[in-house]
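Hi F.,

I've been meaning to write this up properly since the lab meeting, where we talked about keeping a consistent format for the predictions we share between groups. The idea is simple: the sequence comes first, exactly as it goes in, then the structure tokens exactly as they come out, then a line or two of notes. No screenshots and no reformatting. I'm using this chain as the first example so we have something concrete to point to.
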Amino acid sequence: MYDADQGSEDQRMRSARGRLHPSRHPHTLPHLHRLLLLLLMPVLMFGMSLVAAAQPLERPHIVFILADDLGWNDVGFHGSDEIPTPNIDALAYHGVILNRHYVQPLCTPSRAALLTGKYPVHNGMQHLVILEPEPWGLPLHETLLPQRLRGLGYATHAVGKWHLGFYRREYTPTYRGFDAHFGFWNGFQDYYDHTVQASFSPFRGYDMRRGLEVDYDSAGRYSTDAFSEEAERVIARHDASRPLFLYLSHLAPHAGNPAQPLQPPPAPLPDLRHIGDPARRAYAAMVWRLDESVGRVVSALERRGLLENSLLVFASDNGAATSGVHANHGSNWPLRGMKGTPWEGGVRGVAAVWSPRLKPRVSRQLMHITDWMPTLYSAAGGDVRSLGRLDGVDMWPSLLRGGTSSPRRHVLINIDDREGYAALRVGNLKYVNGSAFLGFLDGWEGSPGRRGHYNVTSVHLSPAWRALSRYTKVTEETVAAARSAALVECPGDDGEAVECDPLVEPCLFDVEADPCERRNLYRGPDGRFGPRFEEVLDLYRRTARQPLNVDADDNADPARWNNTWTTWGDFVH
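Output, unedited:
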């Protein structure tokens, strides 16, 4: 039988109004008080990873598929039926849907958190992203996930987007623990010609690499297809006597160059005529090709006989960019905000994990993208204690065990004092002080994505379903239960909404009872804990590094380097 942690989210929300509301259950306030106090010492140690002994097992092949700017409401397993995502849905239904999976608001910080197991404030990656001509990157003293797994005997491959620095070769993937990399170094590219037009400068150049070598053979090949084919090649050629770590970091569905940001793939395409907005329809086609890639990867693992000992993760690096810079017209509905903001729409990300050892369910366990470092290391049989100080928590034992309890009790959303905001979730409560982009992206935008017809047949016929169903049994009834449990619905306009302006004073929400952040509790009984949240944030500031962002360097101009983006710092002194 399908296991949802505590029933569907809308059912939980209805009961939560009486069960979780602080004014109705005063004992939750001292509990929060104690929890905040218990946080102080771990924060001073900046989040030593909670350790649980990993069970001995054959080292699994690990495939981590990272989507770029995919919206919460742009996958079928969250209740949307607007964009067909049969392979992603199949993976989610056969595995664990991570319905409380938090990420960073932007691309570079999320990737830094994923690969280091540390909050971006602890390595200077917390402010904005690495822009194309900027000479900086993820600090070289950080030991990354592929380096850790390589120490356990893994072959490590990166495919797709990097976005963690490239101005010197030491910052590029094959110097950071990956045996091989095929993809691009910047934050986005044209899907067909693979050029990158710098975001805030006139520089433009080609960006597709195989290791350090420019790969001109890929010009004209759609990026999603090129990365899918490379992932298939990696799997087909892999020496099965060694465990594999494949990091497939897609461009899709991030916008391309500003002149043509939405670039659908070549035919054949599904029938998307039901989407009236042409921009949204183009985005849907980009997501559909991303979904097809997931099916290709799962099928490739099955062909090689690797799937039965594999651990697959699918996640988005942040919420969709519905509007603003690099808008892709994705939807985080009904969550508030979008990419770049500390609201749920920016930082509560699409995520699911599959292993033949995991029981299918919708998990309400709190999880953060930093947790993947210790979690995957633990799943690989490594001793998490050897990783040293991390902000990530080993979730592997709790994923295996199931249930509602989580070793993670709080999430630092981010502290970006340059941008002017800080946000923290503790238990059910989330505190937001200040906002990004002057608050212009703080509202509720995006398509509801509800047509009333979910094509479950296409899910059953997907390559991912055919492959995964050999190891995990899921029925049509359990699919319906999973979609119901993973659905986020928010209270209607019943007079309880309490607005907030975080640029004037902090906001506080019970994001379990109010996931859409409509009822500000700061002026209610919970408001007294605002200073406690600030105490925790100030303790994080004591261990934080200053942001590493630096001004652009004109020497990065691709016109100086045969019209390619290159490691210009290696040649200019």
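Notes:
The CA atoms of residues 231 and 463 lie 16 Å apart.
Residues 6-30, 47-57 have pLDDT under 50 and may be disordered.

If this format works for you, I'll send the rest the same way.

G.
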